[in-house]
Specification:
Blueprint: H1 2-35
């Protein structure tokens, strides 16, 4: 049960970081396209 709760907490943090990084990559890609002549 404890491991399940731990996994749930880890999964939540993992998804938050995944969302953050994908957002960051998306912004970088957009700015790259924008700066491209």
């Amino acid at each position: 049960m404890v491991s399940f709760l731990l996994f749930r907490g880890y999964s939540k943090v993992y998804h938050k970081w995944l969302f953050y990084f994908s957002n960051l990559i998306l912004q970088t890609a957009k700015s790259d396209v924008k700066d491209f002549p």
